[in-house]
TrEMBL record:
The keyword Hydrolase applies. GO terms for molecular function: hydrolase activity. SUPFAM superfamilies: alpha/beta-Hydrolases (SSF53474). It holds the Pfam family Abhydrolase_3. Gene3D superfamilies: alpha/beta hydrolase. It comes from Paracoccus saliphilus. It comes from the Bacteria. The keyword Kinase does not apply. Keywords: Hydrolase. This is Acetyl esterase. PANTHER family: AB HYDROLASE SUPERFAMILY PROTEIN C4A8.06C (PTHR48081), ALPHA_BETA HYDROLASE FOLD-3 DOMAIN-CONTAINING PROTEIN-RELATED (PTHR48081:SF8).
Length: 293
């Protein structure tokens, strides 16, 4: 399914420190391997970029760049179980530098120590504490939280735009991508159940914020830029959500990245495909910010 040598090299380098079976390991081992993998790919911050760790709305955050009229709220991925301020530090730093906007990275509480809805409550607290318009951006689990934030604020103040990067949005596993990409590199369909179990335990998932794809009403939400990885079980969550948003009258742009797997943001410096996708993501952020300004 993947023939691009740059992408294949990225996959091999990722699996050298974070092999596929680690997703099914214990929480501590999973986090240790994930952090080691992120360290391999972490790039230096742009020179001179101002960075500060501080609480926003009582939630630990990392803030990149000076205050700007419009800011970016970034919500990291990691299946709600792994990741944090360091895992996506370089991504946030590069967005702040390229877009010329302050970026607020949210260190929301992780499962299984903190079950749902702790994660969306942290994101809501940051949103409510900010006194300027914002574009909300997230990847993977963070993309679901970005979509959930917009849903939670329906009928109230909305973000200027929602940028959802290879999102998991609560698909029920019936879409083709869950079958076609069941053994995809870097994220397998079987891995998703483990992450959901950590987040919800044995409780049935009834909160629409935990499954944006199945929310009853989507009208009035922020315009969306949604990007999916073609070699990813979650691919069709993105396209199905785009259709539902369009049907609700929400402006949407959907982009599917051929030959790229889940988590490809870390390949943006070594893969032409990933770099172009990251550039499109930054362009969407800038576009939403300019429209809002």
């Amino acid at each position: 399914m993947i023939t691009d040598p740059q992408v294949l090299e990225f996959i091999a380098e990722t699996q050298a420190t974070y092999p596929d079976e680690t997703n099914g390991a214990g929480i501590d081992e999973n986090r240790r391997h994930y952090n080691a993998m992120c360290d391999v790919f972490r790039a230096p911050r742009p020179e001179g970029l101002q960075v500060e760790d501080r609480a926003v709305g009582g939630v630990p955050c990392r803030v990149y760049g000076p205050p700007s009229a419009v800011c970016v709220i970034y919500i990291h991925g990691g299946g709600f179980v792994v990741g944090g301020l360091d895992s996506h530090d370089d991504v946030c730093a590069e967005i702040a530098d390229a877009a010329g906007l302050q970026v607020v990275s949210v260190d929301y509480r992780l499962a299984p120590e903190h079950r749902w809805p702790a994660q969306i409550r942290d994101v809501e607290s940051v949103w409510q504490a900010l006194d300027q318009p914002a574009v909300v951006v997230g990847d993977s689990a963070g993309a679901m939280l970005a979509a959930s934030l917009c849903l939670s604020q329906r009928g109230q103040r909305q973000p200027l735009g929602q940028v959802l990067i290879y999102p998991g949005l609560g698909g029920d596993g019936s879409a083709a991508s869950y079958r076609d990409n069941a053994e995809a590199p870097l994220l397998r369909t079987a891995d998703l159940g483990g992450y959901q179990g950590a987040l919800h335990g044995d409780d049935p998932v009834t909160d629409p914020l935990a499954r944006p794809l199945h929310a009853a009403e989507l009208d009035g939400l922020s315009p969306a830029f949604i990007v999916s990885a073609d070699i990813d079980p979650l691919r069709d969550d993105a396209s199905e959500y785009a259709v539902r948003l369009q049907q609700a009258g929400v402006r949407v742009q959907l982009r599917n990245e051929a030959q790229l797997p889940h988590g490809y943001l870390r390949a943006r410096r070594t893969s032409d495909r990933a770099r172009l996708s990251f550039q499109a993501i930054i362009a969407a952020i800038i576009r939403f910010a300019n429209e809002g300004a």
